[in-house]
Amino acid sequence: MLQPFTPEAAFATIASVLRNLCKDPLPDLALDTRLDELPGMDSLKSLHALALMEEQFGVEIDVAVLDYHLEQVQDVVHAVCAACDKSGLGAGRSR
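Below the sequence we write its predicted structure tokens.
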């Protein structure tokens, strides 16, 4: 059954993607966790993470999001939520 899309659901999925991508024990992830403090995270892994999130959520994240630096987990959540809103999967809709 499809779950309603919410920022909280987006955070849970994003946290899972980051944990799998880093393959190292991560600190407790929070919205204000800095991406550059995650073990092994670099610009290439950040792009890989965005590609995985596009696949996971079935959306295309606007490349303009890369014009400003994604510094914290909340920046990624905002980018995913914006892409979901743009594609019609905003809060309250199923994915």
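The CA atoms of residues 89 and 95 lie 6 Å apart.
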